[in-house]
Amino acid sequence: MTTTDEDTCPGHNGPCGRATIPGDPYCARCRIASQRDRDRVVREWEAVRDAAVAAAKAQAAPEAAPAPF
Question: What secondary structure, in 3-state letters, does the chain show?
Answer without folding.
Answer: CCCCCCCECCCCCCCCCCECCCCCCCCHHHHHHHHHHHHHHHHHHHHHHHHHHHHHHHHHHHHHCCCCC
